[in-house]
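Running this now, will post back.
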Amino acid sequence: MTYVPYYVHGADRPARWLITCDHASNHVPPFVNGGDLGLPHEDMERHIAYDIGAYAVARHLGEMLDAPVVASNFSRLVIDPNRGEDDPTLLMKLYDGTIIPANRHADEAERDARLNACYRPYHAEVARLAARPGTVILSMHSFTRQLRGRPPRPWEIGILYPEGERFSPALIDLLKAEGDLCVGINQPYTGYLPGDAIDTHGTAHGRPNTLIELRSDLIADAAGQRRWAKRLAKVLPQALVAAQI
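Update: finished.
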């Protein structure tokens, strides 16, 4: 069976949105150490391997907004599509206290093989759909409530964006106005990482964009995934109007 490194849902949907999910899957393709990174099952089910719940939220949002969705079909531990090709964390050997056995001795040839089989085809498809006129990119992610040895994170949702981007501040204002959310602004991570997926497909081309981080315990089940998709589907178009984009 031929391996496909990404999924596309609704490629012909007409909305301006393009919804991406860089860390949709914890799948390890068979050509990577026989499909096994050497981690126990419980680690492959953790946030270190993929963004829990994000893919389902992205699919629901695509249906609600009538927008195409592109999602990866490989674990971020295989190679991280939300990093530039020259980023030292592109192929992680240690993540949140866990050593990745199959990555410990990965050399340049292995890195290039994973780039060619997984990373580059995914980005080529995102680039193809992003090239439609007027595209607004929405990158869907999730974050763990607590890293090992760190205090719990207070945010329920984080909005990440680079300096000067107009859409995200409008979205933040609308989310804060709802009154019942702890909204992180460029939390739990910085909103600008040179060469990352949003920078490559959004900022570098002057396309409006935002990266949404939902706390994974809130979207760990089907009810939470649909609830958050409905909530976002309501405010995202309002933010587009407010930002006059």
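The longest helix spans residues 108-130. More later if anyone needs it.
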